[in-house]
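Sequence, please.
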C-alpha cells in the first residue's frame, strides 16, 4: 500500500470508527453465531497475490463484524468492562504509526520517561504511597505473576532464579477462596504448585476472614511449610468484595510475607476520595496491581503494577546480554527489566491522552455516575419481592437472583441461568453470572464508558419481562 492509498483508506476508516462509536448501542451486544461459522467463511490459505484494501475491508464488515461481541456497547454488563474512549483510541493510532518497541530507555527515551511520569500522576491521584514505583504490564495476570516471582526470589535470596528449586522448598501463598484464577495460574508458572495456594475462608461479605488467614499461616508453620506471600483482593471478581488489606498488611509484616494487592478492577475507584476507605495509603504492601484497561477508559491492554521496592522486581527480571547493553544503563530505567517480556508497547501514551483529555475530574464524574446507577439498580432489586441481593455492593457490581422459597436451590440455579440466557438472547443487553455460596446469580456490572440511565431502565424492563415469562 503506498502512502497515497494509506491516506485515502485511513480517512475512510476514521469515518467508519466515528460512525461505529456513535452507533455502538444499535448492534446486538453479543453475536448470534455458532462455533465454526466464521472459520468456514475464511479461505483455506493466505492469498498469493495482493488484494485490494476495499475488498479486505468488505470482508471485515461482512465476515468479521457479525462475529464480534460489542464490548463498548453501553448495555454490555458482563464480566468486567474492557472499556475504551476516544482519546485512548487516538493514542493507539499514533502508537501503531510510530511502531516503536520500547524495551529500553534508549529505544525510545520519551516512552520510558512518560511512563514514569504518568504512573506518578496516577499513584498520587489515587492517594497511594508516594514512594511506590510503577511499571505498565499487559495484564493483571502478568503483573501478579511478576509479583509472585519477586516474592519467591526475595525469599530464596535469588537462588531459585540461579540454581532452580532444590526440591526442599515448601512455599505457601494465601488468598481468599474468591481469588482470581490468575493467581492459581501464577502458582503453576512460578513452579510453586497450585496445591500450595491456600484459599482462606471468607466472611459474610465474601471478604477474606482474618482469623482464618492467621490460623492457616500458623498451621503451615507447624507443618513445616514456608509462608511466602498473601494475595489480597481489592474487589474480587465475583462480587467486588474488599479484603481487609490494612490488617492483612499487618499480618504480612508480622510473618515477613510479601503482600500483593490485586485491585485489577476496583483500583480505579481510588481516584474518588469517597472510595479511599478501601485502601489507606499507609497500608503495608509490597506490590499492587490495577487495570486502567477495565474501568479507566483506556483500551486493552494496559495494566499498572506498583511496587514498594523496585529492586526486587529488577533483580528478579534483569538480564543484560551484551547486545542490549547501553551506555545510559546506570542512569535510567530500562523497563524490560521490570517484567517478563523484552519487547514493550508504548502504552503510557494512551494513559497520558486519557488523563489529560478527561482530566481527573472528568474521570471521577463518570465513576460517580456508575456508582449512582448501581445504587438505583440495588434499590430496584431490594424492593422486588421475588429478587434478592447475594452480596454487598461496595462499588458497581450487583449480584442478584430470583428466589422462591418453595423451590430447591438446584431448581433456583437452573431457573436463574435460564432467566439470564433469555435476556441475553435478545441481543439488547449482555450479562454474565457467578455463584456465591453455591447460588447462581446474575452479575450486573455498570462501568461502561457511555452507559446511562436509559440502558439501565431498558435492561430492567427486559429483565422483568423475561422473569414474567419464566414464572
Ligand atoms: C480481571 C481480573 C484479573 C485479570 O485481569 P487480566 O488483566 O485480564 O489478566 C485479575 N484479578 C482480578 C481481581 C480481576 O478482576
Amino acid at each position: 500500500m503506498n502512502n497515497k492509498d494509506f491516506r485515502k483508506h485511513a480517512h475512510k476508516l476514521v469515518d467508519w470508527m466515528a460512525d461505529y462509536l456513535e452507533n455502538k448501542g444499535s448492534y446486538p451486544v453479543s453475536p448470534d453465531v455458532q462455533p465454526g461459522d466464521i472459520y468456514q467463511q475464511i479461505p483455506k490459505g493466505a492469498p498469493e497475490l495482493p488484494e485490494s484494501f476495499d475488498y479486505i475491508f468488505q470482508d471485515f464488515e461482512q465476515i468479521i463484524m457479525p462475529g464480534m461481541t460489542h464490548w463498548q456497547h453501553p448495555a454490555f454488563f458482563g464480566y468486567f468492562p474492557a472499556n475504551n474512549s476516544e482519546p485512548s483510541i487516538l493514542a493507539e493510532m499514533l502508537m501503531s504509526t510510530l511502531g516503536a518497541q520500547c524495551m529500553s530507555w534508549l529505544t525510545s527515551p520519551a516512552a520510558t520517561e512518560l511512563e514514569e511520569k504518568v504512573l506518578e500522576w496516577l499513584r498520587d491521584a489515587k492517594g497511594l504511597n508516594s514512594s511506590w514505583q510503577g511499571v505498565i504490564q499487559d495484564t493483571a495476570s502478568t503483573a501478579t505473576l511478576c509479583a509472585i516471582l519477586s516474592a519467591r526470589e526475595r525469599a530464596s535470596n535469588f537462588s531459585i532464579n540461579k540454581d532452580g528449586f532444590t526440591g526442599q522448598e515448601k512455599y505457601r501463598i494465601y488468598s481468599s477462596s474468591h481469588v482470581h484464577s490468575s493467581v492459581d495460574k501464577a502458582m503453576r508458572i512460578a513452579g510453586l504448585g497450585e496445591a500450595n495456594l491456600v484459599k482462606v475462608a471468607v466472611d459474610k461479605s465474601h471478604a477474606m476472614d482474618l482469623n482464618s488467614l492467621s490460623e492457616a499461616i500458623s498451621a503451615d508453620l507447624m507443618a513445616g511449610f514456608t509462608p511466602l506471600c498473601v494475595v489480597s483482593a481489592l474487589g474480587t471478581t465475583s462480587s467486588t468484595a474488599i479484603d481487609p488489606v490494612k490488617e492483612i498488611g499487618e499480618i504480612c509484616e508480622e510473618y515477613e510475607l510479601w503482600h500483593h494487592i490485586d485491585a485489577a478492577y476496583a483500583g480505579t475507584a481510588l481516584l474518588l476520595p469517597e472510595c479511599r476507605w478501601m485502601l489507606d495509603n499507609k497500608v503495608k504492601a509490597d506490590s499492587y496491581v490495577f487495570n486502567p484497561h477495565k474501568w479507566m477508559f483506556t483500551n486493552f491492554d494496559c495494566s499498572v503494577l506498583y511496587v514498594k521496592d523496585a529492586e526486587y522486581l529488577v533483580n528478579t527480571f534483569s538480564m543484560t546480554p551484551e547486545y542490549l547493553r547501553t551506555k545510559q544503563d546506570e542512569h535510567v530505567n530500562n523497563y524490560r527489566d521490570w517484567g517478563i517480556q523484552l519487547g514493550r508497547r508504548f502504552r503510557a501514551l494512551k494513559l497520558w491522552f486519557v488523563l489529560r483529555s478527561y482530566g481527573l475530574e472528568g474521570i471521577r464524574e463518570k465513576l460517580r455516575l456508575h456508582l449512582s446507577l448501581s445504587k438505583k439498580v440495588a434499590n430496584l432489586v431490594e424492593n422486588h419481592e421475588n429478587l434478592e441481593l447475594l452480596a454487598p455492593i461496595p462499588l458497581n457490581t450487583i449480584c442478584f437472583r430470583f428466589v422462591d422459597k418453595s423451590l430447591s436451590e438446584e431448581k433456583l440455579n437452573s431457573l436463574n441461568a435460564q432467566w439470564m440466557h433469555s435476556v441475553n438472547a435478545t441481543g439488547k443487553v449482555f450479562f454474565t453470572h457467578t455463584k456465591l455460596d453455591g447460588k447462581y446469580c446474575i452479575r450486573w456490572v455498570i462501568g461502561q464508558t457511555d452507559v446511562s440511565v436509559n440502558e439501565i431502565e431498558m435492561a430492567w424492563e427486559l429483565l422483568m419481562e423475561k422473569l414474567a415469562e419464566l414464572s
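The CA atoms of residues 325 and 419 lie 59 Å apart.
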